[in-house]
Amino acid sequence: AFPLWVHQLLEYDSITNVCEQQIWSHLRLILPYLGILVLGVGDSIGAICGLKYGRHYWPGVSSRTLEGSLGMFLSMIFVVFVVFFFTSGGNSA
User: Fold this and answer.
1) What is the pTM of this model?
2) Measured between alpha carbons, how far is 42 from 40 in angstroms, rounded to an integer?
3) Model confidence over 64-91: pLDDT tens digits?
4) d(Cα 73, Cα 21) in Å, to the nearest integer?
5) Are 9 and 23 in contact (CB under 8 A)?
6) Degrees to nearest 5, angle at CA 61 with 77 and 57
7) What is the Cα–Cα distance from 47 to 23, expressed in whole angstroms?
8) Strand-pair partners of 65
């Protein structure tokens, strides 16, 4: 299901707003690398944060910590912003 969803996103070209077109062009650059972003960056940083700072476990029978999950989420957001910054040439406007 996910490859179909990504394929439909990549084929979507009926955006007329200039701001949306710029955002969409950046998203097209990130979509092929989502697996690397999630497993390579997010999971690695999440594991490090969970081992070093993890004190609060998710409810139920889980070895995952809230701190590790937060580290994973923030690291992926950070990488997306870095990619957007470099693909836009450093221009904020």
Assistant:
1) 0.68
2) 6
3) 999 999 999 999 889 888 877 777 765 5
4) 25
5) no
6) 45
7) 30
8) 57
